[in-house]
Amino acid sequence: MVKRRALLALVAAIVAAAACYSPAFTDCELACSPAGMCPSGFECVGPVCRAVGATGTCPPATPDASGDGEMLDAPMTHPTTMWGNVSRVYSPPNGFVVEDPSLTGDERELFLMYGSGSGSGSPGTSDIVVATRPMGGAFSALFNAQGLNDLDSLVRESAPYVTTDGLTMYLASTRPGGMGGSDIWMHTRPTRASNWGEPVAVASLNTVDTEIGGSITANGRMIALSRVSANFDDEDIYIGIRAMPSGAWEMPLPEVMINSAGIDSHPHLSPDGLAIYFHSNRFTGTDFDLYEAHRSSIGAEFEPPRRLDELSTQGFEEDPWVSPDGMHIYFTRTVGGVKYIYDARR
Fold first, then answer.
1. 67 domain-assigned
2. Can you list the alpha helix ranges (DSSP code H) found in the chain?
3. Is the residue at 63 inside a domain?
4. Could you tell me if 185 and 36 lie in one domain?
């Protein structure tokens, strides 16, 4: 299986439209669709589309590491080494809160939730702000981070997630027009220098419950979010897929190998969807820590999450964002009742 599962519906559409053998596909190259479909000239054998009459076994699955959704890539190796020394990146002014760091893939734009209140479900106001830096330079204007009026409304915005290319923003908002509570909205822009466009509620992801986050893979076909139950007594991580980067999402499903009886929130997916980072209070029921989990292929289950003990303190560690190469993490840490932005490298 060497294509992403999220591509399978597109393959099925090609089959339905063309109904002929495509020499672009070879034995073992495609995974079967969820309905067990394969292109003409192939048959579904286990999870893989085999050429009719083919024998032998298929090689191990190779993920589409580049996220182009088209060609076979070499397997992407995700680092699992311990994180190194922690540095404080930003201290908010008195009375204000910063949360939810999210960066472009080149780490030159840092988006934050900035406001008076804490958490997507708590009282207070919050907006999305951004700080920029030159290539290889430092964020020099965090204290004067630019408010993004084209992303903000008169209500709460939180949990920004900017795609690697910096052209799409997902965020949580209680603005009118959603399904209820906090919902996921999307903004796009044509270039990094452009203003953000009008918000669009992502209806296929939203429910009457509270949705937070929206971390998406590089090919735009898999998304991770967290959902808070109606009575606010539980929060779990969900993953959704879609056939095309601009299509509607299938109903997100809870990630059972990740979720616990506690709160599991703010997931961050690696570009290829094979690593996930999040925060949880599963260990104590009160103290939030950071976790990471890995899987061998898109079709595999995540392995049991590892608590990032090297980053854990008696304070809360939350809101992870990890660079595309898996070597640089940004997160929030609560010290003395105040949230700060920190980072660490492997």
1. no
2. 8-18
3. no
4. no
Residue 87 in tokens:
């540095």
Q: Are 117 and 174 in contact (CB under 8 A)?
A: no
**C-alpha–C-alpha distance, residues 102 and 213, integer Å:** 11
- Pairing state of beta strands 235-241 and 253-254? antiparallel
154: in domain: yes
Report DSSP letters for 303-337, one per residue. PPPEE-GGG--SS-EEEEEE-TTS-EEEEEEEETT
DSSP symbols for 224-258 = EEEEE-TTSS-EEEEEEE-SSTTSPPPPPEE-TTT
| C-beta separation of 165 from 193 below 8 A | no
Amino acid letter, residue 241: I
Query: Do both 41 and 132 map to the same domain?
Result: no
Residues 317, 176 share a domain: yes
pLDDT tens-digit map of 115-137: 765 443 344 567 888 888 887 77
* pLDDT per position as a tens digit, 189-207: 999 989 898 889 999 999 8
Task: Write the DSSP symbol of residue 117.
Answer: S
Whether 10 and 151 share a structural domain = no
- Number of helices (H), then strands (E), belonging to the chain: the values are 1, 22
Pairing between strand 253-254 and 275-280?
A: unpaired
Domain with 38 in it: 5-51
Q: Is residue 236 in a domain?
A: yes
pTM here is 0.75
255 exposure class (CB count in 10 Å sphere: 0-12, 13-18, 19+): buried
Angle 275-70-163 from CA coordinates, rounded to 5°: 50
